Recover the amino acids of this structure.
């Protein structure tokens, strides 16, 4: 049995533009935050994340927000990036780690950042944190699939200081991150 060590703590970060944001584990009561994030993704970002056109509707946003907020700790983790421009926090990004209980040293990875926040370092922070969470859980490989036009995500993955393998298959790029070495702190790079 794999030990599910939780690193998942809230961390305060600064974007490349100097704006503060927070990365923390999602909770079941974050459904509305995650639904709002989904609702504010462009059609192109939704397509790159889900590999198909996903109609924008309150129902679809709520269903997806609830799915992400209720991910079982045993079977993975959802991290949420938030900003607080006013009285209420807004979700600006999410990273998901799904663990197959039949193969507990292998995880699936997905990262999505709201369009107006892309390129500011939020995706990098989410990706680094989900990799550290995976390592703490004894996961040796993270897998993900990308559409070929999602070059920004591929660049993001390749900037990590871990071996990255890519295979083009059936119109998608399958990515494998080998997590044999501990990821250094971002400040140490």
């Amino acid at each position: 049995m794999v030990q599910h060590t939780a690193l998942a703590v809230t961390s305060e970060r600064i974007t490349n533009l100097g704006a503060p944001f927070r990365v923390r584990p999602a909770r079941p009561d974050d459904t509305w935050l995650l639904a709002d994030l989904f609702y504010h993704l462009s059609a192109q970002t939704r397509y790159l994340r889900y590999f198909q056109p996903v109609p924008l509707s309150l129902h679809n946003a709520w269903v997806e927000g609830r799915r992400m907020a209720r991910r079982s700790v045993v079977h993975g983790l959802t991290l949420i990036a938030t900003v607080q421009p006013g009285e209420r926090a807004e979700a600006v990004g999410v990273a998901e780690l799904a663990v197959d209980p039949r193969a507990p040293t292998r995880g699936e990875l997905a990262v999505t950042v709201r369009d107006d926040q892309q390129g500011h370092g939020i995706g990098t922070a989410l990706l680094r944190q989900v990799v550290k969470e995976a390592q703490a859980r004894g996961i040796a490989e993270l897998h993900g699939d990308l559409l070929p036009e999602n070059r920004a995500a591929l660049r993001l993955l390749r900037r990590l200081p871990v071996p990255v393998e890519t295979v083009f298959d059936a119109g998608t790029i399958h990515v494998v991150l080998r997590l044999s070495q501990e990821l250094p702190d971002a400040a140490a790079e």
Remarks:
- Residues 11-183 form a domain with the Aminopeptidase fold (CATH 3.40.630.30).
